[in-house]
Write a structure and sequence with these properties.
The protein is of the alpha+beta class and about 230 residues long. It has two domains: about 80 residues; about 140 residues, Mannose-Binding Protein A, Chain A, CATH 3.10.100.10. The longest helix has about 80 residues. The relative contact order is 0.14. The mean pLDDT is about 80.
Length: about 230
Amino acid sequence: MYSKSHAGSCLHCACPAFVALCLILLGAVAVLTVLYISHDLKLKERLELQDQLSKNQTEHGQHDLSRNSADSRRNCFQRELSCPKKWEYHGGKCYFFSENRLNWTRSRDHCISIGGHLAIKSIEEQEFMGRLVQSKMMTDNDRFWIGLTDEQVETQWLWVDNTPLDEMIRHWLEKEPDNWTVILINPTGEDCASMGKGYPTDSDNWHDENCATLHKSVCESISPNNG
């Protein structure tokens, strides 16, 4: 049996240790509380920053849309000023996609009568005209005469302004030009160039065809603002 004095001595020794443990636990709780509050504040700041960035991006996007819309209206207005009605503006030139189905010679003369000539293509114009031709084709067989022919000398392709065809911008359909000639069907061969589909996925191929074939056409002229 322990004496009362011995028990009191043990209790006296345990109290400081218990107090120290409590203080340590309280300190730990305080530290964790501070860390939690600090983390919570940083999280709130981060969320507020993200919200602000999102708002700025939205306002910036709306500003860009507004600016693009204004640019689009201005470009449309400029095109209206640059080309006659129903003509398409591109790169300082105007293009008219005629729905009249005529042979190559009459198509050439028609373009001249409305102030232009059958289209002369450059590298820059190929993509533009291909896209427009595709949008205006009613069927896969729709084609448009362009200002290219080898009527004078076979295989020597010339534009209507007598400029030789540049090898860099040839865009013939595969195996074209072939000057397909059959007696009683196509005796004069194929000396004029058209533009249109050769296969379902292509709309900007060139074809050599009999010049008497009836096709739509693409006329071209210099924009009045660039003249």
